Amino acid sequence: MDSYYRIIKRPLITEKSTLQKEMNNQLAFEVDRRANRIEIKKAVEKIFKVQVVEVRTMNYRGKRKRLGRSVGRKPHWKKAVVTLKPGQKIDFFEGV
Question: What is the dihedral of CA 65, 79, 20, 89, to 10 degrees?
């Protein structure tokens, strides 16, 4: 892939991901659908300057949505759960 910033699209800040961050030192990201685990690991290590132990990925199909009579679809997307080395952390909204 070209750039590390094209691989990592955005962090997923949900109730479940917050619990994973506190208990297991894991973070969730929405990533490019074509990226593999090795590319995701390198991107997280370079962008956030942390050490990654494990990367797990999941592919999600886009949901069907209706607006009146027309039916559309949200895009398919990929989620990556990244486990950081003990003692490492990334602060997104700490102190806000």
Answer: -130
- Residue spans of beta strands (DSSP E) within the chain: 8-11, 26-31, 52-60, 64-67, 70-73, 77-84
30 lies in some domain: yes
Give the count of domains, the chain.
1
Please report whether residue 45 resides in a domain. yes
pTM above 0.85, yes or no: yes
User: Domain holding 70: CATH number?
Assistant: 3.30.70.330
Range of the domain at 43: 4-84
- Of the pLDDT bands very low, low, confident and very high (cuts 50, 70, 90), residue 1 is low
The token pair that represents 83 in the structure block: 């486990």
pLDDT for 22-62, tens place per residue? 999 999 999 999 999 999 999 999 999 999 999 999 999 99
CA distances from 54 to 48, 64, 67, 81, 96 (A): 15, 32, 40, 8, 29
